[in-house]
Amino acid sequence: MTITLQEVLPTYFDESRRQQSEVWGKQLVFNKGEYIKIVAPSGSGKSSLSHFLYGMRNEYNGQILYNDQKLHSFTVEDFARYRKDHISIVFQDLRLFPEQTVRENLELKRQLNPYHPAEKITEMAERLGIGSRLSVKSRICSYGEQQRVAIIRALLQPFDFLLLDEPFSHLDDNNSKKAMELMLEEAKARGAGIVFADLERIDFFPWTRLYHL
Amino acid sequence: MALSFQPVKPLLQTGTNAASRWFSYIGLGIGVLLLLCSIQMYINIQQLLGGDSPRKDGFDFISISKTITDETMGQLEKNLFTEPDIKEMEGKPFVDGVSPLLANNFRFQLSGGALVPFVSDFFVESLDDSFIDTVPPSFTWQPGDRLVPIIIASDFLEIYNVFAPGYGLPQISEATATTLGLQLICYRPDGSKETFRGRVVALSDRVNSIIVPKNFLNWANQQFGTTKEIRASRLYVKTKDANNPDFLSYLEQKHYKVNKDKTKFGRVKQVLQGIFSGLGIFGLLVVILALMLFSFYLQLMIARSKDNLQLLLVLGYSPDWLSKNVARRFIPVYILVVFFAVAFTQLMQWAFHHFAMFDREEISTPLHWSVFVTAGFLIALSLVTNYRMVRKLLYRMA
């Protein structure tokens, strides 16, 4: 299982980025099981990269391949299967259903391709300190709580790669560490790779490769 | 474990525009009811008027004659059809067959025999067998036969029964008429006569005449007649549609007169069928309008739930699965709406059969199968149109 980037550059970026960046305009292969850290200052295209890899946007030149298959050639149904079975994401902007409870938000993802039993939701929520918030509407939760919900949601399905787009922006160090621990456990259990994009290095992420965007 | 639509359902915002949804359900119900009632009434008319129609094998048979005016009175060649007239008519595209009603060209008398002591000068005619509605196998004659089979118009029997008592003659039933021993008396120009035995083998609703086998009349005209030329005062025309405008204008142009009586049933039936076809088309339009209203409602619902649906797609929900399930949500409602329309149609049919038709046997109280087929088709149509529309919108969103 690999994700290959072949000279990918967002259409809205200047060509000069190819020289400045270690990712844009380069040939890269991410293998399953690898932990990739991408350090990127604001505006360098972190979210764009995550969205391109997840297949949500396609305004880029070059190619992204999942197992030698171009994402550009995917149909909407192919993307549905890709997101259900092979790739998971924690969005920077969280993207929860505001009118549903925390548990409903998590169950909506879990039932799609259940990797864990329903009880695991409670266990993970307890572990990240939001066990008491399960029956609260997600719009009532704080950003920190919502971010933890988004993290748990990403871990309820099978995946080969986990994409993290500034996953700890609303969390303190202690909670970030707990969440990272849980994510590493889950990735290990699946033998999956992690592509972690953030503003700066984070000590508690044991990356195997580091790139500057 | 199968993917459940239950947790997805609350994400579709349907609450605030319930009125437009109910309007579309009611509209759909009315449209389906109109359509189904029209189909059933159309079938009722077919069944009620089908038996009495002068149509045979899908054709109209009408008799035409030349209009006798003050100018043409007494001029045989102007009032009779000649062979070129017949040939011309046969060549017309709206005519499927022509048969002249050939009359006797000699003096002819009909006698009731011993049972009905009644003698009168009369006429006989002949017509191609295929133009007669009732032709029994016994309607044949060979030269040398003394017995001649006859087909008489049922109207004639009726007329006879009207005047018979006044003349002290017995009235005759249809069954007796066919057992009567009649005498056919043919006169030569010199006054000598020859008598044949006649037997009524059938009564005809279509042909207003006394019909004998064609070869008998041909033979008799040769034997007793004065002219050899084929001249007919009436023609029988076989046509797909007696109300075809081209056909009618041709008849008018040639100053031919149509026996309207025999096409009247056809016309009444056509008018009624026209009315119910119109009503059916109106019903179909209402159904289409209701489906459109419902599709607007669905589009509104999808627009209102756009964020939620988009997030579902981002999370990995299949647009096809979502479309199917959104469309499936309305199956029970559609089935219920159509079920009520079928029930009302059944009620209407029962009332029509019982109160308006006094339980006549030609039609039945249970609805015709085609009504049920149409109802099923409408349910399928509603679901397919919904599914396709939701699918299109979701694919655009994905």
Write the layout of secondary structure elements.
The complex is a heterodimer of chains A (213) and B (398).
Chain A lengths: L1 E9 L6 H4 L6 E5 L3 E5 L6 H9 L5 E7 L2 E2 L5 H10 L1 E4 L11 H9 L8 H9 L15 H12 L6 E5 L7 H18 L2 E6 L10 E4 L1
Parallel strand pairs in A: 3-8, 3-9, 6-7, 7-8
Antiparallel strand pairs in A: 1-2, 1-4, 4-5
Helix pairs in contact in A: 4-6
Chain B lengths: L17 H33 L9 E7 L9 H4 L3 H8 L6 E7 L4 E4 L7 E3 L3 E2 L20 E7 H10 L10 H4 L4 E6 L5 E12 L5 E2 L2 H11 L7 E8 L5 H9 L2 E3 L2 H44 L1 H10 L3 H10 L2 H26 L12 H29 L1
Parallel strand pairs in B: 6-8
Antiparallel strand pairs in B: 1-10, 1-11, 2-5, 2-10, 3-4, 3-7, 6-9, 7-8
Structure commentary:
The complex is a heterodimer of chains A (213) and B (398). Chain A is of the alpha/beta class and 213 residues long. Chain A has a domain at 2-96 and 159-212: Rossmann fold, CATH 3.40.50. Chain A has helices at 17-20, 46-54, 76-85, 102-110, 119-127, 143-154, 173-190; strands spanning 2-10, 27-31, 35-39, 60-66, 69-70, 87-90, 161-165, 193-198, 209-212. In chain A, the strands form 2 sheets. Chain A has a 5-stranded parallel β-sheet with strand order 6-7-8-3-9. In chain A, strands 2-1-4-5 form a 4-stranded antiparallel β-sheet, with helices on one face. In chain A, helix 4 (102-110) packs parallel to helix 6. The longest helix of chain A has 18 residues, at 173-190. The radius of gyration of chain A is 17 Å and the shape is globular. The model of chain A has no long low-confidence stretch (mean pLDDT 94). Chain B has a 6-stranded mixed β-sheet with strand order 4-3-7-8-6-9. Chain B has helices spanning 18-50, 76-79, 83-90, 154-163, 174-177, 214-224, 245-253, 261-304, 306-315, 319-328, 331-356, 369-397, and strands at residues 60-66, 97-103, 108-111, 119-121, 125-126, 147-153, 182-187, 193-204, 210-211, 232-239, 256-258. In chain B, 50% of the residues lie in helices and 15% in strands. Chain B has 398 residues and is α+β, with helices and mostly antiparallel strands. The relative contact order of chain B is 0.19. Chain B folds into 2 domains: 9-52 and 267-397, no CATH class; 60-239, no CATH class. The chains are: A alpha/beta (213), B alpha+beta (398). Chains A and B meet through helix 3 and helix 4 of A and helix 9 and helix 10 of B.
